[in-house]
Amino acid sequence: MNFFSRWVVDAAYFLSTSNAYQKKKRFIYDVLENSSYKYKKYFDFFMMALILLSVVILIAEVKHPVPKNITFFNVYIISIIFFIEYILRLWVSSSVSEILINKSEHDMMLGRTFSLFRALYKVFKIKFHYILSFRAVIDLLAILPFFHELRLLRIFVLFRVFKLFRYTTSFQIFASVLSTKKFEFIILLMFASIVIFVSSILVYIMEANNPASPVNTLFDALYWSIVTISTVGYGDVTAVTTEGRLVAMFVIVAGISVLAFTTSIVVSALTEKLDEIREVKTLEDIRKLKRFYLICGYENVAQEVAKKLKNGTNNIIVLDEDEQRIEHAKKDGLVALNYDPGSVESYRKIGLDLTTQVKSVLCLRESDVENVYTTLTVRSINKEVNIVSLLMDDTNRNKLNFAGVNEILYPKGLVGMIAKELIGRPVAFEVIHALRNDYYGVEVQEIFIDERVSQNNIYVGKMGVSRFRIVLLGIYKKEKKRFFFNPLDDMLLESGDYLLIIGKTTFIKEFDKYLHKKGKI
């Protein structure tokens, strides 16, 4: 390897390992191509506005003089912006440094001399393949109005309209759906082309020598064939001879067949991809949510938790790898995805920001192994998000703590604690049963004590629960990790505590507002 080749490969390694360079390239890629990137929509809106503005200026130029500064903006400024976008898309379409490194390592492994010319040829081939792609061609044509001195090229402003497909997700989804039926469309196009070709020649032969016929040239015959097979039938060019009309009847029948075949292809493509389209739409809606609870697993406990959270007007997303449980969640009115909550790929597909979007990850599978695995997966993605996990067997508590769970829910321990308090009290058990079934609209709710409330230095005896016709069942002290039934009046509310309240929903909400209002109580 000569000095220049070595220098090029070293530069490729430098760029490949440079965090600053890769970070900038990733940012450009996200803005241009990554539909899950939260800032991409602003770039898309900006580009669509430029496209529509350039078309409006083009229309205004037809019959009205346009100020030179507006013409300059349309021809040069917008074209330069599109040109910069084109170059950036060409840059991020593939990694030159990665191609050079792979070629160098491949030649080294085989004991061959590294050929810089071959490596650069491979780079050129990959980049040229992108340049010839449909989207890149449209981008290039949209830049051509820059050559405003050639007035004919001004018509290429209209190609900027086709760029709208790049910035509109719905168009992209529809195009991807139709692409699955590429073979059927090719067959249909071949059939229609043959019919148009044959009918054009036939009607030209039969009509061209008739002075009363409007078909005088082969182009007239071609125009007539296309209008007829499309079932539009303008009536400006028609066959007047008997033979020509027989050809017209054949073309009309073929046109109906083509139209029916086209409709069936589009409908079948949409039907086959309907679930995928719905999933894409669901993912887009999820990415727009600001705050929500992520429930991993939808079994008995998860169903009850989701029901309570939903009554509190909270946004809830359910992940479960079981299709039946997902269908159950959807019937319950929840947004549910058939994704494995223990897979990193699931969270990448969704494109969640666990730090800003997710209030808490609730691992509610009735299997400690599944909950531990899900916790480890979430922690590998984000170290800060709050994770609450269900514990089925107390011997696995340390495993959940080691995995990174913030709070553990142990149903057996809670049942035992309540049973201990209520032994020999049959009426109390009836009350608990009634509360579980939302008896007369009375329910048990928890109120979180945040810093705003704790700064008011509120004691239990001065909360005024009796004014709101509610009952304070107890307080969970986060610092002590202990639940206090019937707490004493001199117990101070601290940040992170939870109040367990019994009462009607309306009164509980009013009490919650009362606690969080400004000023001391």
In short:
The chain is of the alpha/beta class and 521 residues long. It contains 23 helices and 10 strands. It has 4 domains: 3-167, no CATH class; 182-272, Helix Hairpins (Orthogonal Bundle), CATH 1.10.287; 290-409, NAD(P)-binding Rossmann-like Domain (Rossmann fold, 3-Layer(aba) Sandwich), CATH 3.40.50; 433-516, Alpha-Beta Plaits (2-Layer Sandwich), CATH 3.30.70.
How many individual domains? 4
Report the β-strand fraction as a percent range: 5-15%
- Separate helix tally: 23
Cα gyration radius (Å): 34 Å
Mean pLDDT: 80
Strand order of the largest sheet: 3-2-1-4-5-6
Low-confidence stretches: 147-153, 414-423
**Amount of helix:** 55-70%
- Shape label: extended
Strand pairing plus helix content: what structural class?
alpha/beta
**β-strand number:** 10
User: What is the multimeric organization of the chains shown?
Assistant: single chain
N-C termini distance: 80 Å
Question: Sheet bearing the most strands, described?
Answer: 6 strands, parallel
Q: What's the topology here?
A:
Blueprint: H1 3-17, H2 19-32, H3 40-63, H4 68-92, H5 96-109, H6 116-131, H7 134-143, H8 159-162, H9 164-167, H10 169-179, H11 182-207, H12 218-229, H13 242-272, H14 274-288, E1 292-296, H15 300-311, E2 316-319, H16 323-331, E3 335-337, H17 344-350, E4 358-363, H18 368-381, E5 387-390, H19 397-403, E6 407-409, H20 411-422, H21 426-436, E7 442-448, H22 451-454, E8 471-477, E9 482-485, E10 498-504, H23 505-516
Parallel strand pairs: 1-2, 1-4, 2-3, 4-5, 5-6
Antiparallel strand pairs: 7-10, 8-9, 8-10
